[in-house]
Design a protein that fits this description.
Helix content is 52%, strand content 0%. The protein is built from 5 helices and no strands. The longest helix has 34 residues.
Length: 180
């Protein structure tokens, strides 16, 4: 898995792409937190949940259904001023779902683990994308080590720099649209 910092950064970059107008601080906090939430599944290890179980690491909490449910829950709880089930509500819910789903996408690009159960609970098959370019980060605080420098370089190249470029492009396109 990429580090929690990288998942949060990717969420913030997606927020910059999504948010055309000024957004409240809670939007940005949730944009950073939603992509990190799926890794709370590691708590299961303390209760005997095995890595490959449906509720194990990279299982249901990394699925597209979980992302959609979290996106709806976050929107309902933290954006009460937006009328439920309206176009604006669904726009926010799907944005937060996409931010959450980015976690599984990044994990599926790593060089290790069992893959990601994108379609759980309907199908618990674990998938990787065909390009394992991100060096997998160990579970826990192992990225604060010598190996962590390799992880950081990999994440910088494959996530941080493309995220910065995507966010910058979104800002430039919005500014260009205002001019014309």
């Amino acid at each position: 898995m990429p580090t929690a910092f990288t998942h949060a950064f990717a969420g913030l970059a997606l927020g910059k792409v999504y948010a055309g107008e000024r957004r409240p601080a809670r939007f940005w906090v949730l944009s950073a937190l939603c992509p990190v939430v799926p890794d709370l599944d590691i708590i299961g290890f303390a209760f005997g949940v095995r890595y490959g179980d449906a509720l194990g690491h990279r299982g249901f909490s990394h699925s597209l259904l979980f992302a959609l449910l979290l996106g709806c829950l976050v929107t309902r709880r933290y954006f009460r001023e937006v009328p439920p089930l309206t176009r604006g509500w669904w726009s926010l819910a799907l944005y937060f779902a996409a931010a959450t789903a980015s976690h599984g996408l990044l994990d599926a690009l790593t060089t290790g683990g069992f893959g990601v159960a994108f379609f759980s609970p309907l199908d618990n098959t674990r998938y990787f994308l065909p390009w394992p370019v991100i060096i997998v980060s160990p579970i826990g605080l192992g990225f604060f080590s010598r190996y962590g420098l390799l992880i950081f370089k990999s994440e910088l190249l494959w996530v941080w720099l493309p995220s910065i470029a995507l966010a910058a492009l979104a800002v430039l396109v919005r500014r260009a649209r205002r001019l014309f």
